Amino acid sequence: MRIATYNVEWFNALFDDAGDLINNNSWSARWDVTKAEQTAGLGHVFAAMDADAVMIIEAPDTSADRNAMVALENFAARFDLRAREALTGFTNDTQQEIALLYDPDVLQARHDPQSSLTAPSFETEMRMDVDIDAHPDPIHWSKPPLEVAVTTPNGALRLIGVHAKSKAPHGARNKAEATRISIQNRRKQLAQCIWLRKRVEDHLAAGDDLIVLGDFNDGPGLDEYEKLFGRSGVEIVLGEGNGVQLFDPHARMALGQRLGATPVTARFKRKGQPYLQALLDYVMVSPGLREKGPRWQIWHPFDHPDCYADPVLREALLMASDHFPVLLDIDL
């Protein structure tokens, strides 16, 4: 089975209110990319992945006038994808949903939110003292994780799709304000990851096979504020100390070295400067799934040999998004 996570930059802008693709030469929400170019790129990438399930981060909007599942199923029909049924969970007001696009001939999936005394349902709030003032602060997810119960012919599986809070200092007017906002955002991002880790521990204690996948807007050694807090959100979700840990080989590689090459899953343009690359997207598996010998791939157009050797796929990946898919192949 192939399971992937893919952050599609402003997927929502490619659809009208009826959920139909706007496949023309008007500008997309991507810099210097038309809607037709981004749509064609995405169609080619999704078809080439040929995944059984794709956790889509920044999926189209669900609101009073729009429906992410309709948009994604229209997209799948347009490109004749096997993964042609869509599932969403708790919606949000950011125009960027978390959604699962899957092949109903291979698996069945349903939104199955959980709640416990230590980890409440993700659409609610959790109180945590994030600024160390002895007063618990209310923590919310702007994009509540998508909890999916998956049924395959060989058993059950749990998926949690994640889009953790960005740490970027949006709206800062000067350096001091940027520092303050960055620290505040990192506190919130770490709090979200602590909340998520508590849910992970509930599933591990129950013996569930679990995959946590998506965009964490974080990673080992990613910014200077990690030194201030001592760890990244990714490390928290993977598990620390003697507890049962999740595994992602790209995170392990980044954690295991201070210098040298590190895998990357995103490539951002900066005006007048070189591209900024980062490891932001992960597919973490529980110990039982790791024992099945899974294989991970990042479809980076310049780092993955097969993607680089295929000029059509290479260009499609560059047109489609500022993130690249992370694929997991596993025998279930």
Helix content: 25-40%
**CATH fold field value:** Deoxyribonuclease I, Chain A
Provide the gyration radius in Å: 19 Å
CATH class, anyone?
Alpha Beta
In spatial order, strands of the major sheet run 3-4-2-1-15-14
Major sheet attributes: 6 strands, mixed
Count of DSSP H/I helices: 9
Tell me which CATH architecture applies here: 4-Layer Sandwich
Distance between the termini: 7 Å
The overall number of domains is 1
Task: Describe the 3D structure.
- The chain is an alpha+beta fold.
- The protein has a single domain, classed as 4-Layer Sandwich (Deoxyribonuclease I, Chain A).
- It is 29% helix and 24% strand.
- The strands form four sheets. Strands 3-4-2-1-15-14 form a six-stranded mixed beta sheet, covered by helices on one side. It has a five-stranded mixed beta sheet with strand order 5-8-9-10-13.
- A hairpin with a 2-residue loop joins strand 8 and strand 9.
- Helix 1 packs across helix 9.
- It is globular.
Features:
five-stranded mixed sheet, alpha+beta, 332 residues, Deoxyribonuclease I, Chain A, globular, six-stranded mixed sheet
Lay out the secondary structure:
Layout: E1 2-7, H1 35-49, E2 53-59, H2 68-78, E3 85-88, E4 97-102, E5 108-111, E6 126-128, E7 137-139, E8 146-152, E9 155-163, H3 175-206, E10 210-215, H4 225-229, H5 233-238, H6 249-255, E11 266-270, E12 273-278, E13 281-285, H7 287-290, E14 295-298, H8 305-309, H9 311-320, E15 326-329
Parallel strand pairs: 1-2, 9-10
Antiparallel strand pairs: 1-15, 2-4, 3-4, 5-8, 6-7, 8-9, 10-13, 11-12, 14-15
